[in-house]
Design a protein that fits this description.
6 strands, globular, 184 residues, Rossmann fold, 32% helix, alpha/beta
């Protein structure tokens, strides 16, 4: 069978690794898991705000491929993002068990505030195109919307659009698996 690939996932804002199946990753939204450096991996999988975290450390990542799910391509204020997050939370019916414990919320808000300063699309453009895939839920009307998809396409970045919303689900998991283990 070939070499096992080292895969790290970085969860979406206010979420934990346990929401992402069997992948290893870093619980960046838990204050008890303060992460200074990102360990080496073959694949860095980022979901939403987790992408901002990866990109905030991009200069220290030596190699690897990137799979980004519903990135925050367009700059927005924290107020707009919080409003969109509330709409997303209720419209996509996010279960409270998927969210980090309330004791971490202040830490998460501070992280979000810091990570919103990242020029997501500017750094994405530095990644060699052969090492990057973006997966977008066609029904993500909150963070990686149709306008974001057009920006991605117009810059010739590989974009896979699937029938999903913003949150991680089985369809997104399958698209990620296909990117890691392409069919011959």
């Amino acid at each position: 069978m070939g070499n096992m690939k080292k895969i790290l996932i970085f969860p979406g804002t206010f979420q934990t690794i346990k929401n992402y199946g069997d992948y290893d990753g870093l619980d960046i939204w838990l204050k008890s898991s303060f992460i200074k450096d990102i360990p080496p991996a073959d694949y860095y999988i980022g979901h939403s705000g987790g992408i901002n975290f990866i990109l905030s450390h991009y200069d220290s990542i030596q190699k690897g491929k990137f799979i980004f799910i519903n990135p925050l391509i367009k700059k927005r204020s924290i107020i707009i993002l919080l409003w969109n997050w509330l709409k997303f939370f209720f419209v996509e019916s996010i279960k409270i068990r998927k969210v980090v414990p309330i004791s971490n919320w202040l830490y998460c808000l501070k992280m979000v505030s810091r990570l919103l300063k990242i020029d997501v699309f500017g750094i994405i453009q530095k990644i060699p195109k052969e090492n990057l895939v973006i997966i977008r839920g066609k029904n993500d009307n909150y963070f990686c919307d149709k306008e974001s998809a057009e920006i991605i396409k117009s810059n010739n970045i590989k974009l896979i659009e699937i029938e999903a919303g913003h949150d991680w689900n089985e369809k997104i998991a399958q698209a990620v698996k296909t990117c890691i283990i392409p069919s011959n």
